[in-house]
Amino acid sequence: MADLERSAAKExxxxxxxxxxxRITNQRRAIVETVFSTDQHFTAEQLLEWSRKRDSxxxxxxxYRTLPLLTESGLVHEMDFxxxxxxxxxxxxxxxxxxxxxxxxxxxxxxxxSERLETLENEISQNLGFTVKSQQLRINASxxxxxxxxxxxxxxx
Amino acid sequence: MADLERSAAKExxxxxxxxxxxRITNQRRAIVETVFSTDQHFTAEQLLEWSRKRDSxxxxxxxYRTLPLLTESGLVHEMDFxxxxxxxxxxxxxxxxxxxxxxxxxxxxxxxxSERLETLENEISQNLGFTVKSQQLRINASxxxxxxxxxxxxxxx
DNA sequence: GTGGGTGCAAAGTGTTTGCAAGTGT
DNA sequence: ACACTTGCAAACACTTTGCACCCAC
Lengths: 157, 157
Fold this sequence. Notes:
The structure is a homodimer. Helices cover 44% and strands 17% of the residues of chain A. By secondary structure, the first copy, chain A, is of the alpha+beta class. The first copy, chain A, has two domains: 3-89, Winged helix-like DNA-binding domain superfamily/Winged helix DNA-binding domain (Arc Repressor Mutant, subunit A), CATH 1.10.10; 99-149, Dna Ligase, domain 1. In chain A, the strands form two sheets. Chain A has a three-stranded mixed sheet with strand order 4-3-5, with helices on one face. A two-stranded antiparallel ribbon of chain A has the order 1-2. In chain A, α2 (26-35) crosses α3 (44-54) and α2 packs across α4. Chain A is globular and about 45 Å long. The structure holds a DNA duplex.
C-alpha cells in the first residue's frame, strides 16, 4: 500500500541530509532503506540488526547517531511506551497525529487516529493556556476480543 | 487541601505492606512519609534525597526497591515523559485518570482531567476490540501565554 | 530465631561520546 | 584536501542485584 510513500520518504530524507550539508554514506543509506522498507515499529537494536543485513559494516554508534536525524526530519517518530528502550515509528509523516493502544498481554501495538480526539486535546490545551506542539495518547489495554478470535499471540516477540 | 487524604494514603500503604507480610522498617517509613507529604511529582533520586532528611540511613537501593511497592499498591503512579528517568506522582489514588501537559520550555507539568476525554478513549478502544486498563495522554506544548504572564520559568530546575 | 530487609558496591541496560582512521564531495 | 563520518571501546545515567549483615515480627 505504501510503497510509493515509502520511497518518497527515503527521498525526502536524503534531501534533508543534503540541505544540512550532511553526507550520504553507505551506512546511512543502508539504515534509511531499512527504515522505509517496513511498516513496523522498531527499536534501535532491531534497526541495527536489520541494517546490518544490508551492510554489515553498520555499527551501533552509527544507528544511534542516525536516529536523531530521522526524527529531526519529521519522517520517523520516537515513542516511549514505558519500556526501557525507545520505539520508533516510520509511519509518522503519513499520519502525524496517530495514537497507540498497547495490549499488555501480547505487546501488540495498534495505531488509530481520531479527529474528535485531536479537537478535544487542542481545546483543553488552549483553555489551560498552552500551545500544543505534539501529543501522544497511550492506552494500555487487553485485547480480550482478539484473544477470542485467536489473534492475540501471548508469546510476544 | 489534601492533608487528610495524604495521611489516609500513608495508612493504606502500611496496610498494603501488612497484607503482603512485608515489614514496616524505619527506612520504608521514612520513604512513605516523604512520598505522602508532598503534592509534587518526583524522581527516584529526589525521593532518596528527601527521605534521607528524615532518616539518613535510607539508601538508594531501598528507594528503588520500595518504588515498585508504591506503584503496585496503586497509590503512586509511575510516568514516562521521554526523559531518561521516570517520574512518580503521589496524587494518583485521588485522581486516577488525570493527564499531563508538559511545557517543553520550562519542564512545567500541569495535570488535568476530562470526562469527555475519558469517554472518547473508552469508545475508541471498544471499537478496536480492547478493554482499557489505563490511559496516559501526554501533551507537549509551550506555555506562551504563561510566559506573557511571567509564570513560565525558563530556568527549569 | 528466622525470613525478610538493608547498605554497599558491582553489574546491567540502553544510549552517548572521544578518538584515530576513513570517506563523500 | 577538508570536513564530516565511522567503528570501537570506554563512558554515562539510571536502575537492578549479589552478598553478608541486620532487624521486625
